[in-house]
Amino acid sequence: MPRMHHAAEIPENFTINLSTTGRIFGFLKPYWLQVILALICLLAFSTLQLAGPYIIKSAIDGPIADKNYSGLLRLTAIYMMTILGSFIAMFSQIYTMALTGQSIMNDIRKSLFKHIQSLDIRFFDKFPTGWIITRLTSDIETLNELFSSGVVQFIGDSMTLIGIVVIMFSLNTRLTIFVLLSMVLFAVNVILFRKKFRDSFRAVRTKVAALNGFLSEHIRGIHVIQLFNNNLKVREQFDRANQETLNAHLQTVFYFALFVPTVEITSAITIVLLLKYGGFMIQGGGITVGVLVAFFQYARRFFRPIQDMSQQINILQSALASSERIFQVMDMSTGVSEPLEDDAVIPETIVGEIRFENVWFAYNNEEWVMKDVSFVIHPGESIAVVGATGAGKTTLTNLLCRFYDPVRGVIRLDGTDIRKIPLNVLRGFLGLIHQDAFIFNGSIADNIRVGRQGISDMELERIAEQSGLATFINRMSRKFATEVGEGGRRLSAGQKQLVSFMRTISFNPQIVILDEATSNIDTVTESVIQIATEKILKGRTALVVAHRLSTIRNADRIFVFHKGHLAESGTHDELLKKQNGIYPRLHQLYYAGKPG
Amino acid sequence: MTLKRLHNILAPYWKPYSKTLTLGLLCLLCSSSLMMIQPWIMKMAVDDLGSDHFKARIGLYILAILSVTISVCIFRFLMRWLIIGVSRHVEGDLRQKIFEHVLILPRSYYDRVSSGDILSRMTNDILRVRMILGPALMQIGNTIVSLIFALSFMLVIDIRLTLLSLIPLPLMPVMFYFMGRKIRFHSEQVQEQLAEITSCVQENLTGIRIVKAYNLESVECEKLNAMSDNYVRKNLNLVRFQGLFTPLMTLLTGISTSVILLFCGWWVISGRITIGSMVAFLEYLAILSWPLFAVGWVVGLIQQGSAAMQRIQSIFEEKPCLGMLPGDDYIPVHQFRGDIEFKDVCFKYCPDQPYVLEKTNFSIKQGETVAVMGASGSGKTTLMNLITRSYLPTSGTVSINGYPTDSLPEYPIREYVGIMPQNIVVFSDSIANNLFFGARSSDPTVLMNALEIANLDQEFMEFPDQLETHLGERGINLSGGQKQRLTLARMLLRDSDLLLLDDPFSSVDIATEEAILNKLLQIKGKKTTIIISHRMNTARRADRILILEDGGISEDGDHDTLVAANGYYADLCRRQDLLSQLESF
Under an 8 A CB cutoff, do B197 and A137 touch? Predict the structure, then answer.
């Protein structure tokens, strides 16, 4: 199992990586028009929002002071319009930015998936399914936050702040300085609490993770707890972890409960300062009442953006961590590479001669599962591969499909090194029937067509006929339209194999690679499978990892694999005659007394 | 779930904290009402701005504003600290109660319910319940108090103005509620689509060899692209409502503000109200908008919380085991000898499944060593599960020392047996704690003995922290064989009279197995031992071998007898012989 999960965690001291940031913004490029539109909306919104208090100020100082009714009506109408305008601007901004964010996520998801599809089997061996899925889902979601709220919000907040300061300065310089001084107070406050918050949140995260880990482990292992009569001790342990989590939570509650009031006190101090000096200024005729009222309102709006901005930094950090993990996958390259263009050989057709020349292979370095294997399979010949578990049978099929490349040696198809044939061309000649017949969610027809809509219903019937499976299909409730369920769970193991047989036949491959299933199958299906196997192998070069006696008997030759070597080869009868050989024993152990 | 039912279910959890909670609510009342005074002071101050009183009174106003703010802050702090604190305490208590209950639920419950489900009850659902007692409660209190005070102050200033400015406000909670429903609907759609993408990718990854073998990469990409496009569409549907939220709130408050601007302005001009009243009005409106808005939010919280509580409640309704705790051993363990008898035992795990055991009869005497063999699925593990009373037989009786298990509580039975289950469980804890898990004594010589038998004494002592070495996620990983031998030592430390070993050497090589078996049989003395095994060398050492086939005992006897009988066991011997021959090639 890979040890990658640890690398996936956010490092403690996270620094913003410029190249990662650059790459993220590269995805933003195609949508620059939308981003500009969103920014314009944002600018409009901020301006209109700030206009509100100003209009009220004008109303108080202008028409209300002058007793001008029509002026008041006009200003109210303007106020209403700014409200409506800011509504429209705000919504357009949110929607445009969500659209942009979603489009980018869509692009990233698609290209990441496409990239993953191009990686070789070693990648899928190395990383667990859950790990890959997390990259494609939650990591991309986190990145989305950055676009839909983070970046634009940050720009918006800074614009609002600047706007407020500009307006305040234009109204009165001295009062503005008071407000800015109180902002320093606020900033000190935020900085003081920020560390406390970070530490206590971290403590909560650690404790909650520990508690959940404890729970999941002990619920999964509940039978051991119960069988060892250890309930009380486990309960005590749990209580301790639970208590620690509670304490961590309470500490966060404490800091938060303390933080909110300090913000309010800062704001009250600002109001008091404004009231005192503003009041004296009004008395001295320096400013009007309206200016002071406007200052009250602007001061209140001043604190929000600052608070928001400190939150944006957290979003930014986790989004960057996510994107690094995404790029980590995007930067992985396939170990099974396509041939260079000048080197590539693209055969139109093949006769189907397979040649292994001194092939060595190991999944992990130096743990050889295939040692110096050489053989030739002639066109149209069918070969049964037998051997004990771990003898290297499946490796043979893996190498032929180029899921992996040999560590040493060459595999040739019609004399051409298969590494020189483009992957899709090579695999186009091969038909692989995997041991656990893989069935997609959908109908039987979908599973045979696998995306090739060109295959008509008539052709489906013909395929069924060819593989001797027409009766099987006719017995299904809705024939080809029968839904198979997720992972084909509505089909039996045998039925799944039959469907995958038809899939292979539909591709009409020149070479068939069949890894026979070992699972228990009822005798009726068994005989159907036997007939279908014969039909599928007929006239094709075939390599069969055999578990059925009938398959072995019908094969032209048998390859006996033992501990990574090709130990014996020959026909069934020839091999049985060698009294001291491996085959007679294998035969007794696995095939004698089995159906077929 | 009705509110009354919810209250009844939740009452036992908050009752212990009712004093704290009452105090918290009192603080809420104080802080919210004091909050309302502030605009009033501002109103008076602004009214005085133009007059000569200002100089004389400004100090008073400042003092008033600051002292009110400070008291508000103190009460706010206490309110949050007390109410949210209680909700955290309740969360902890609830989690503890659930855990205590699931600890004593029978095996059949765990067959039915996935551990992921139980975990989700104990994490997500508990959090939702907490939201009712914490934030929701606080918000309800705040809304009520703010509404009463703000309205009365506004009414004192002017009744018609109040009514006029409030016209758009009742729309807020209604809007919040309906939009909340829309948002929940659309976010469910988004979640579903995400789940679909996840299972599509999962399917792709499981079948990646087929995908590659048939050049289906581009087909798969197209499939994902379509789903991804759909996901974008559904997300945008959600944004259409979610993104409307804040703008709408701003719009509604803005409309109220313009109403006030127009009419207040008008009345200030005509001299009916002062300019201070107008400023205060604007303030109150700002104060009121969030609490009103929050009503809809609270309704959503309560709905989600009560659904979560219902799911939690369903765990409590599960019937626990007969007696799983100390004190449940009303039949003294020391009376047990070691005789086990299966009489006409039939068993199936589920009513709609076929029988695993059918009319199984056998008995084991104290001190015997019995090997149980049979194909996979023949019911070997079931046999052990019936002895430990993890399940009761569907019909027939299993008895230990003459006591039928259905009348015995679990506790005494498990005090009596030492078991080594097939699936190896090692906890992320120190080696010592894993070894002493359920041990009867912590005597170091007993420990060394057990480690020696399990061939672990040297291996563990070579670790940097020896027995204090931490295992699992944050520690080191043992190999499969080490883990298996650790569970053997753990069983030995229980010092039980009946040893049950379910395939105990599957991850251990044959030489080590031989060594362990020799030592084990040497010390076992009068202990009854039952070993499930696939290997001949284990069976050969047993006094008796039981072969399970077709739901019953098909062969019973020692090695020589069964070889002579030329049945399943003899066949097994031949196969193992062939395998070892192959190994030597």
Answer: yes
